[in-house]
Amino acid sequence: MAGRLAGKTALVTSAAQGIGRATVLAMVAEGATVVATDINEAALASLANENAAITTHKLDVTNQADVDAIAAKAGTPDVLFNCSGYVHAGTIMDVVDKDWDFAFELNVRAHYRMMRAFTPGWLAKASNTGKASVINMASLASSVKGVPNRFLYGTSKAAVIGMTKAMAADFLNKGIRVNAICPGTVDTPSLHDRMRATGDYEAAHKAFIGRQPMGRLGTAAEIAALVVYLASDESGFITGQAINIDGGWSV
Ligand code: NAD
């Protein structure tokens, strides 16, 4: 199949809904073969029916045995999109150790686990260019921007950016590109969960839109399009970057 990702294999974590799901669909539309993974098997099942180029596997990215199993099964993908993450609301005064551990486990360590599992395979590839493109999900709420009530989330997503740059620097000349993406507020199922969790859905909806200068939320498809670009050889001169895709929130 023709397309910007023709001939490439990709693995996406947390792919059952939201940005991960939209990215899987965008990748297969560009000719990739995709292994879509998530902890939620039921939600993944519908994705498998979308396109024959998609295979699905249950993967809890916080579980090393699960990561090892998928690495053994999936071989060495050309593209790895680490999409997992959870938003804790609150200031430093709201943080308890259990939440700190969970945020760093899912938002940061999971990306590390996945990259660690596949790096030996990438390094073993014969060519010294274009071996792999890794895209790590960060957020605008990170080292890019301090967002009120996102202490733990912003701290963990800043770590993703640091990890991305460190990894990119180590493998600059070994054919492994590593970039992070930093979305603003994106219309996904968990965003609506967060709006409901405030107890006043309408007010929260208004506030989320209000903080976006364009007066609208981003779409998962818009974020997916950036991931496809970073996954493709068109972006071959880009590595170690944290790319904002935020409707001008950071301007
Ligand atoms: P989402 O929060 O709606 O869905 C998250 C998915 O992660 C679900 O399918 C869930 O089953 C899966 N998941 C949960 N725990 C898991 C685990 N242990 N192992 C594997 N999968 C697991 O998706 P979203 O809103 O598109 O967010 C995806 C990523 O984008 C997250 O890292 C999030 O922080 C980041 N992000 C989102 C926004 C936004 O506004 N939606 C903005 C910036 C960054």
Secondary-structure class: alpha/beta
Hetero groups bound? nicotinamide-adenine-dinucleotide
How many helices in DSSP terms?
8
Strand order of the largest sheet: 3-2-1-4-5-6-9
Characterization of the model:
The protein is of the alpha/beta class and 251 residues long. The protein has helices spanning 18-29, 41-48, 64-74, 97-124, 151-170, 189-197, 201-210, 220-231, and strands at residues 9-12, 33-38, 54-58, 79-82, 132-137, 176-183, 186-187, 218-219, 242-245. The strands form 2 sheets. It has a 7-stranded parallel sheet with strand order 3-2-1-4-5-6-9, with helices on both faces. A two-stranded parallel sheet has the order 7-8. Strand 2 (33-38), helix 2 and strand 3 form a beta-alpha-beta unit. Helix 1 crosses helix 8 (220-231), helix 3 runs parallel beside helix 4 (97-124) and helix 6 crosses helix 7 (201-210). The longest helix has 28 residues, at 97-124. It is globular, with a radius of gyration of 17 Å. It starts with 8 loop residues before the first strand and ends in a 6-residue tail after the last strand. Bound molecules: nicotinamide-adenine-dinucleotide. The site of nicotinamide-adenine-dinucleotide (NAD) has 29 residues, from helix 1 and helix 6.
